[in-house]
Amino acid sequence: CEDCGKSLIGECRLHGPLIRAKDRVIPSRARLTLPHYLTLRVLELQAGNQQILGVFAKKVIQKRTQFGPYVGQLSTKLTCYDESRLVLQVLKDGGKYFLDTPNEDCGNWMMFVRLARNQEEQTLVAYQHCGEVYFTTVKPIEPHTELKVWYAADYAKFMEASAVFIKEESVVCPLPPVAKEPVDAWICSSCRSTFATFALLESHQCMHKDRV
Fold first, then answer.
1. Name one GO biological process term (predicted).
2. How many other C-beta atoms lie within 10 A of the C-beta of residue 83?
3. Which of 148, 129, 141, 143 is nearest to 186 (CA)?
């Protein structure tokens, strides 16, 4: 005790306990990167107070809005698996690596986006572009709508994953209309060339990598 000048075990009987000042709680890296027009909502509490989170729009988000790149640790093995999230991989230096997010300080807000179970609830498409993974909106997203993602067709092949939705009743549903857009739907911002699908656009844009 500084007042008594004595070394004590526990509280000082004369002067009482110290007043403890706690550190300010700082949000994780992933939460700090969340854009201002998006919000996290707790959808469910599991055992041990583990939260199931979803990302929701706070305002209208236009079609063809790109988010990313996805941030995660490059790993040859996936250490953190969540069946409600997409498994993502990238091609780096000739090798295929998982984008692993074992905790919220290893990634950005995109780690919270849940996978879409069917075409109706999908709002985002995931694809690889120049060694990075991006999510792009496939339709306007209204306020209070959850952002949900599924693979682009070519990226599904790269991931060796199913390129179709499997509904809860095990009925196969076609891949969402990302591959069925009109020919002029996807425009290169560098040269204004038009493409029918995300996959064709992302392949073309690798030519403009130095400009991106």
1. regulation of gene expression
2. 7
3. 129
- The per-residue pLDDT for range 145-187, each reduced to its tens digit, is 999 999 998 898 898 876 555 444 333 333 434 334 443 456 6
SS3 track for 23-50: CCCCCCHHHHCCCCCEEEEEEEEEHHHE
Evaluated on CA atoms 59, 116, 150, 192, the torsion sign reads negative
Helices (H), the chain: 29-32, 153-158, 198-205
Residue with tokens 């857009």: 181
Structure-token pair, residue 87: 């498994």
Contact 154, 172 (CB under 8 A): no
CATH code for the domain in which residue 144 is found: 2.170.270.10
Is 20 inside a domain boundary? no
Q: Decide if pLDDT at 194 tops 80.
A: no
In a domain, 207, yes or no: no
Place of tokens 């996805």: 70
Q: Are 13 and 1 in contact (CB under 8 A)?
A: no
Q: Give how many domains the chain has, as a whole number.
A: 1
Smallest CA-to-CA distance from 41 within 24, 58, 25, 27 is with 58
- Residue 185 counted as domain residue: no
